[in-house]
From TrEMBL:
<dbReference type="GO" id="GO:0044209">
    <property type="term" value="P:AMP salvage"/>
</dbReference>
<comment type="function">
    <text>Catalyzes a salvage reaction resulting in the formation of AMP, that is energically less costly than de novo synthesis.</text>
</comment>
<feature type="domain" description="Phosphoribosyltransferase">
    <location>
        <begin position="33"/>
        <end position="158"/>
    </location>
</feature>
<dbReference type="InterPro" id="IPR050054">
    <property type="entry name" value="UPRTase/APRTase"/>
</dbReference>
<keyword id="KW-0660">Purine salvage</keyword>
<keyword id="KW-0808">Transferase</keyword>
<keyword id="KW-0328">Glycosyltransferase</keyword>
<comment type="pathway">
    <text>Purine metabolism; AMP biosynthesis via salvage pathway; AMP from adenine: step 1/1.</text>
</comment>
<dbReference type="InterPro" id="IPR005764">
    <property type="entry name" value="Ade_phspho_trans"/>
</dbReference>
<dbReference type="GO" id="GO:0016208">
    <property type="term" value="F:AMP binding"/>
</dbReference>
<dbReference type="InterPro" id="IPR000836">
    <property type="entry name" value="PRTase_dom"/>
</dbReference>
<dbReference type="GO" id="GO:0005737">
    <property type="term" value="C:cytoplasm"/>
</dbReference>
<dbReference type="InterPro" id="IPR029057">
    <property type="entry name" value="PRTase-like"/>
</dbReference>
<comment type="subunit">
    <text>Homodimer.</text>
</comment>
<dbReference type="Pfam" id="PF00156">
    <property type="entry name" value="Pribosyltran"/>
</dbReference>
<dbReference type="GO" id="GO:0002055">
    <property type="term" value="F:adenine binding"/>
</dbReference>
<dbReference type="GO" id="GO:0006166">
    <property type="term" value="P:purine ribonucleoside salvage"/>
</dbReference>
């Protein structure tokens, strides 16, 4: 019988789109992971089973705009904890805190409601992909401004050659990713 690797199985369902959004970019498209109910369940279960462990179990799951919402909401539901969205600036209706971070060309700002987490909350911060790490770093700073502790950052895909995962780990953030596209 063939051995089953969740990481290999998920990797087979990530579509690579060459030269998008710009020439030379190999875009890693996770939408096929979401379209097939079996694949989607394997993906979510990989996260849920990890975070059911008492030592890793969060009080809250925070998802980064926008694909982190898809993963984070389902993982939070399965863990029976709350979910909070970290949105792009101008999308949240209540009082917010904001964090601006640098992009390859310019900057972006993310926001979080001031009552999204409480001091001392243990938060799992989730997104679909780690590239430069800027979005996850900004999300972490937002959560920490409100007194929460980000226990781990999680993503489906890591693109280590872009330096984000190394930068996040150097900052002291524990990371969990399922598929690594190093050198591909």
């Amino acid at each position: 019988m063939q051995s089953f690797s969740v990481n290999q199985y998920l990797r087979q369902h990530i579509r690579t789109v060459p030269d998008w959004p710009a020439p030379g970019v190999q875009f890693r498209d996770i939408t096929p992971l979401l379209q097939d109910p079996k694949v989607f369940r394997v993906l979510i279960d990989a996260f849920v089973h990890r975070y059911m462990d008492k030592a890793l179990r969060p009080d809250v799951v925070a998802g980064l705009d926008a694909r982190g919402f898809i993963l984070g909401a389902v993982v939070a539901y399965e863990l029976n904890v709350g979910f909070v969205p970290i949105r792009k600036k101008g999308k949240l209706p209540f009082t917010t805190v904001e964090e601006t971070y640098e992009l390859e060309y310019g900057s972006a700002t993310v926001e979080l409601h001031t009552d999204a987490v409480k001091p001392g909350d243990r938060v799992l911060l989730i997104d679909d992909l780690i590239a430069t790490g800027g979005t996850m770093m900004a999300g972490r700073r937002l959560l920490e401004k409100l007194g929460a502790t980000v226990t781990e950052g999680a993503a489906i895909v890591d693109l280590p050659e872009l330096g984000g995962s190394a930068r996040l780990k150097e900052s002291g953030l524990s990371l969990f990713t399922l598929v690594d596209f190093a050198g591909h």
